[in-house]
Amino acid sequence: MSGEKAEAPQHDFLTIEKLAEEVKPFFGQMVLVHRHELAVLEGVGEDLHDLYYIARPVVRRPPHYSKEVWYSAVGHCEGLKQYLPAEMHDALLSQRKMNGGLPEKFVMKFDQGAGKIVDYDPNTHPALRRKLQEEEHARALSRNQETDDEDIDIRSLFEAD
């Protein structure tokens, strides 16, 4: 060894901004989410753990036929306009319009937890997300410490009386 420190590998993590850039061309169009859900793309969202496609399903299915649905971005989202005949794409959009409307602008949202969803702000939300994640991590460590204090020696469960 030469004593030189090896550089850490650079990772290209997906961010809400990168996800928005990737799917913005599909805004207001029919998309196939997770390879089976037909929806109209409205935007993207983020919470403490994941990134999401925000869309409204086309199929009228209670309880959320007129509500936005947050689909995990771990799955796939593909625009269908280029694959469908124009009449078919327009008919599907028309159905969505009758079942709750079409989006007017591309949205980026941040879920702060406890049902508090706000418009995403690139100047404040990355730092807020880190802070909330650190707080959640500290709570998890505290819970683990509490259970560690109560743990039974697993070997005692298998010893004969």
Structure description:
With 161 residues, the protein is an alpha+beta fold. The protein has three helices and seven strands. Strands 1, 2, 3, 4, 5, 6 and 7 form a seven-stranded mixed beta sheet that branches. It is elongated.
Approximately how much helix is present in the residues?
Answer: 25-40%
Give, in order, the helices and strands: HEEEEEHEEH
- Assembly of the depicted chains: single chain
Our measurement of the CA-to-CA distance between the termini, rounded to an integer number of angstroms, reads 54 Å
Question: In what range is the share of β-strand residues?
Answer: 15-25%
Q: How many DSSP E strands?
A: 7
The assigned structural class equals alpha+beta
Annotation field: number of helices: 3
- Could you name the ranges where pLDDT drops below 50 across 5 or more consecutive residues? none
* Shape verdict: elongated
- Main beta sheet strand tally, sense and closure: 7 strands, mixed
Using only CA atoms, what is the Rg? 22 Å
Mean pLDDT: 83
Can you give keywords for this protein?
161 residues; alpha+beta; 3 helices; 29% helix; elongated
In short:
With 161 residues, the protein is an alpha+beta fold.
List the helices and strands and how they pair.
Blueprint: H1 16-23, E1 30-33, E2 37-46, E3 51-57, E4 69-72, E5 77-79, H2 86-98, E6 107-111, E7 117-119, H3 125-150
Parallel strand pairs: 2-6
Antiparallel strand pairs: 1-2, 1-5, 2-3, 3-4, 6-7
